[in-house]
Design brief:
- The protein has two helices and eleven strands, in the order H-E-H-E-E-E-E-E-E-E-E-E-E.
- The chain has about 170 residues and is of the alpha+beta class.
- The strands form four sheets. Strands 7-8-9-10 form a four-stranded antiparallel β-sheet, with no helix packed on it.
- The protein is globular and about 45 Å long.
Length: about 170
C-alpha cells in the first residue's frame, strides 16, 4: 500500500525528532562525581561509613544516625556531616547536579536547612530548606538558596510520610 503525504510527514517529523534527541544525548558531557548507594549498617554515620562521611561542625553533638539504609535527621542533630566529591578536584565553571529522596515524618520548623553542597566548611551552595511558612496546616514546603538563609520557597504543599525525589543544580 502507498503511504499518504500526511503519514510521510509524520514519519519525517518522528525521524527528525529522534535524530535531534540522539544528537543531544551524544553532545552531553556528564560525569558522575559521587554515587552514594547508602548501604551502611545502622549506627552513627561518621562511624559506619568508615570515615567517608565526616563531621565538619558540631562533631558528636546530636550525631547523624543511619537506620534502615537511610539518614535519619531531626532537630536534635547539631552535627553537620560532609562527604567529599573527589578530593583535590576543584569544580569551577561547571554545573553540578544533586539528587536524593526525602521523607518527612514530622513538620519542620520555619526555614530549616537540611542539606547543601559546599566547597569547604563555610562556603555553602544549593542550601535546601524545609518550612511550614505559607503552607496549609499539616503540610510543609521546600525551598532553595544559593548561599543565604532566605530561600526561594516552592509554592506546593507536601505531605508527611511521603517520598519525594529532589533534583537540584549548582551553576
Amino acid at each position: 500500500p502507498q503511504t499518504s503525504e500526511a503519514e510521510t510527514n509524520i514519519m519525517k517529523k518522528l525521524i527528525g525528532s529522534s535524530l535531534a534527541v540522539i544528537a543531544l544525548a551524544l553532545s552531553v558531557n556528564a560525569t558522575v562525581v559521587l554515587n552514594e548507594p547508602f548501604t551502611y549498617s545502622d549506627g552513627t554515620l561518621t562511624s559506619v561509613s568508615s570515615g567517608a562521611w565526616f563531621a565538619h561542625s558540631g562533631a558528636g553533638s546530636g550525631p547523624v544516625q543511619v537506620s534502615g539504609k537511610k539518614i535519619i535527621l531531626n532537630t536534635a542533630n547539631a552535627e553537620d556531616v560532609s562527604r567529599a566529591l573527589n578530593p583535590g578536584t576543584v569544580y569551577s565553571n561547571q554545573t553540578l547536579y544533586g539528587s536524593f529522596t526525602i521523607n518527612f515524618s514530622a513538620l519542620p520548623a520555619q526555614n530549616t536547612y537540611f542539606a547543601h553542597l559546599s566547597k569547604d566548611a563555610t562556603t555553602f551552595r544549593a542550601k535546601l530548606f524545609s518550612t511550614i511558612s505559607n503552607s496549609t496546616a499539616g503540610f510543609f514546603r521546600l525551598g532553595i538558596a544559593n548561599s543565604a538563609n532566605t530561600p526561594i520557597v516552592i509554592g506546593s504543599d507536601l505531605s508527611l510520610n511521603t517520598d519525594y525525589k529532589l533534583v537540584f543544580r549548582v551553576i
